[in-house]
Amino acid sequence: MSTQALLACHEVSRHYGSLKAVDGASLDVSSGEVLGIGGPNGAGKTTFFDVITGVTPPTSGRIEFDGRDITEAGADEICHAGIARTFQLNAAFEHLTVLENVQVAAQFGRHARRFPGFRLSRASRQAAERALDFAGLSSKAHMTAGALPVLDRKLLMIAGAMATEPRMVFLDEPVGGLNAEEIDLIQGLVRRMQGQGVTIVLIEHVMRFLLTLSTRVLIMHHGQIIFEGPPDRVAEDATVVETYLGQGAAGRLKKHFSEGADA
């Protein structure tokens, strides 16, 4: 098996005038990994996601996916290459049904179409059905997306991402606004994604979720990566504690890892 990183970002930056939203960030992500990204609001986490997934072009730097340079590729091309994502805000076609939303993802997200009509292929229908079943939304397939509660809207974004049959999925705050039981449900779903061979990169402020799932953690601040390492080392880093966690949260996380209890 090749040891080449599935995703490699080299000195990636995104500037808006004098604002350095992402400032020379470099990272490698290996196949099968769950990489967690944390940091305070405004740290550049979502902008970093946007740059990698083609929503926003980088100001400088290079991005490679499976050895291919995707630095200047658009979001559609990157999705077709095997990178899907969800968004912090609940993105969906509000007036379409749950099934129709996922069918759109399956039809147009898996590969480029030379003649992009909207006659669904059999393969797209099957991919959509599998994704709905995976996310536990089959019973709500004919509900209008705009009528869904918060949890189901997050599940719908995950179903849409999985319908593209991705190799890598970027999850932007997948448990924001959820209660403990709902967080556990999403946690189980992410583990199942990993079990299917999907490489995952996620942003989250809920540290119990982030540190429990991640095989490796990055913390960002002012557009830069200030920490990279195993989850049990996050609360021991003085810079992370000072700029992000605070002493109280750091203490709870240390207890979590020392006792195996929930933070």
TrEMBL record:
<dbReference type="InterPro" id="IPR003439">
    <property type="entry name" value="ABC_transporter-like_ATP-bd"/>
</dbReference>
<dbReference type="GO" id="GO:0005886">
    <property type="term" value="C:plasma membrane"/>
</dbReference>
<dbReference type="InterPro" id="IPR027417">
    <property type="entry name" value="P-loop_NTPase"/>
</dbReference>
<feature type="domain" description="ABC transporter">
    <location>
        <begin position="7"/>
        <end position="247"/>
    </location>
</feature>
<keyword id="KW-0813">Transport</keyword>
<dbReference type="InterPro" id="IPR051120">
    <property type="entry name" value="ABC_AA/LPS_Transport"/>
</dbReference>
<keyword id="KW-0547">Nucleotide-binding</keyword>
<keyword id="KW-0067">ATP-binding</keyword>
<protein>
    <submittedName>
        <fullName>Amino acid/amide ABC transporter ATP-binding protein 1, HAAT family</fullName>
    </submittedName>
</protein>
<dbReference type="Pfam" id="PF00005">
    <property type="entry name" value="ABC_tran"/>
</dbReference>
<dbReference type="GO" id="GO:0016887">
    <property type="term" value="F:ATP hydrolysis activity"/>
</dbReference>
<dbReference type="GO" id="GO:0005524">
    <property type="term" value="F:ATP binding"/>
</dbReference>
<dbReference type="InterPro" id="IPR003593">
    <property type="entry name" value="AAA+_ATPase"/>
</dbReference>
